[in-house]
Amino acid sequence: MAKSLYRIENLELAALLRDLREGGGMVQTALAKRLGRTQTFVSNVELGIRRLDLVELRDYCAGLGISLGELVGQWEARIAKLSRTGRGRSKRAVR
Fold it and tell me: Span 4-85: which CATH code?
């Protein structure tokens, strides 16, 4: 199994977090301020460089104005769509 940082699921989560922020009309610095973090932190999360633990993810969701449950539902839908299109496997995945 590939390291989770490089799995498509992690990259899709990072993209979803970015899409939610942008869809809410928020720039990285505004979200960072809500989170009490730096813009670099937000950037690293959105690039998939920085992973969040569950508590941090819940806080991140609060900063975006959505619940953790809503985020997970949207993420699961994206992952299911990737699986249906055959793009759900990481290129780094070990067979």
Answer: 1.10.260.40
3-state helix, strand, coil in the chain (%, to 5): 65, 0, 35
CB-count exposure of residue 17 (10 Å: 0-12, 13-18, 19+): buried
Structure tokens at 53: 């633990």
What secondary structure does DSSP assign to 12-56, as a single string? HHHHHHHHHHHHTT--HHHHHHHHTS-HHHHHHHHTTSS---HHH
Residue 1 has pLDDT above 60, yes or no: no
Question: Nearest to residue 9, comparing CAs of 68, 55, 77, 95?
Answer: 77
- 38 token code pair: 């730096």
What pLDDT digit, counting tens, does each position of 33-77 carry?
Answer: 999 999 999 999 999 999 999 999 999 999 999 999 999 999 999
Which helix (H) or strand (E) covers residue 77, if one does? helix 68-85
